[in-house]
# Entry
Amino acid sequence: MSDFDYDLFVIGAGSGGVRAARISASHGARVAVAEEHRVGGTCVIRGCVPKKMLVYGSMFAEELGHAGNYGWTIEGARFDWPTLRDFVNRDVDRLEGLYGKTLESHGVEVFAERATIAGPNTVRLASGREITAAHILIAVGAWPMMPDFPGVEHCITSNEMFHLDQQPGRLMVVGGGYIAMEFAGIFNALGSEVSVVNRTDRILRSYDAQVVERALHIMMGRGITFHMNRLVQSVTRDEEAGCLLVDLGDTDPIPVDQVLIAAGRVPNSSGLGLENAGVELTDNGAIKVDAHSRTTCPTIYAVGDVTDRVQLTPVAIREGHAFADSVFGGNPRTVGYANIPSAVFTQPPLAGVGLTEEQARQTYGSVKVYSSDFRPMKNIFSPHAERGLYKMIVEETSEKILGIHMIGPEAPEILQVAAIALTAGLTKQAFDDTVALHPSMAEELVLLK
Ligand SMILES: Cc1cc2nc3c(=O)[nH]c(=O)nc-3n(C[C@H](O)[C@H](O)[C@H](O)COP(=O)(O)OP(=O)(O)OC[C@H]3O[C@@H](n4cnc5c(N)ncnc54)[C@H](O)[C@@H]3O)c2cc1C
Ligand SMILES: NC(=O)c1ccc[n+]([C@@H]2O[C@H](COP(=O)([O-])OP(=O)(O)OC[C@H]3O[C@@H](n4cnc5c(N)ncnc54)[C@H](O)[C@@H]3O)[C@@H](O)[C@H]2O)c1
# Structure
């Protein structure tokens, strides 16, 4: 029995922290967790899960819009934001309960308050109580970055989007990344007038340029307005008109009802008392870690968004699991960051794994690109004549697959399975040898030319 109160104290009960706590406990460690907000963290409470549910809710608009072509008459269809919002938030409550139960059933003690580092083996709770642990894991996530312009206090972040009293009639989204595009898609589908302000002429920078070009074309076709190469100069509240006025510098101020800032998320590392244990930060405020997620203090580890390696839930979970296996399971291991699949849940969604065409050309000089540009059967009945695009980038001689990128209905579902091909190091031939499943959209992947 050690002299410490616990073998492990986890700060933050989000994706990384909950997994690390549960697995460490199952390896026999005595574990406690502090959570200052709600168990589940960003993904469950105000990220992936409620976001995806809003996407599902908003997709009814399109289905209902072309249901008539399939012979359905739907009378009196109308959308009510509070109903969707409350439904989603009830499910978030349910999931929060399940996460809490999982921790409880593994014997993990939960402190529902903020914790900071008081020393290499000591945390201090907001109540003032100090607790000691042989190891401390920092899993406090990231927080929305707010740009510095006059009136930014009138703007909201993705955190507030899940609790809006009313659906904004006019929504302006600032940023061109995942969060910006997903919320633009949701509220466009729900009938809001949506505009996007992006500081460059490129959105979704980490995705394949040709796929992104298609996404942009489709989003504009669906009525989203893009103000490219612009920065918000100021936001003022027009009390009389009951709206916000956004100044982009070169036009008359644009009246909107809400401004969503989606300009990236910064590691949640400030005010954590890291200096009390010699835990160092990188230049952008991320906690410095080695391949085993160990910080510059040997007893303190960090996983997930606070380390700013890849800000995705499955990555935080893997890092938390590898930490627990390494420190308490007698199985030291690291996380592989190659070929992480990801998706943007726009409408239609896009998804990708491996190198984009530009990255592959930069790395290999010359590569082969196979593609399929097709009209999904589902869209034949739709008012949108939108086309899907699938791309496979392969090494020139061996035809080993370097990347797969796609836009079209259900792209994330299809890409998750296709990503296995990169992990397994397959070549294009393996796809050619696979019989098509007809009629499906996924069959385009084994018919690429
Ligand atoms: C709108 C949105 C949509 C997203 N969609 C996706 C998606 O579709 N797919 C995907 O893979 N990823 C998505 N993400 C990213 C994903 O949510 C994060 O990568 C993931 O949650 C990171 O997990 P984490 O454990 O590092 O931190 P978090 O899940 O953020 O957990 C950190 C926890 O620590 C708590 N905390 C912070 N400081 C303290 C303290 N001092 N004391 C006690 N508790 C503290 C916080 O309250 C929080 O609960 C999305 C994010 C957002 C914002
Ligand atoms: N589907 C998913 O997997 C998903 C969904 C949402 C979020 N996430 C994760 O959360 C992270 C954060 O999402 P995000 O969309 O906030 O970040 P992001 O990094 O994807 O995009 C940030 C955007 O903000 C712009 N920007 C930066 N500074 C700005 C400024 N001062 N003014 C105006 N624009 C500015 C950038 O050019 C970029 O377009 C993502 O990196 C991602 O890993 C994932």
User: Anything to note?
Assistant: Residues 20 and 320 are 4 Å apart (CA to CA).
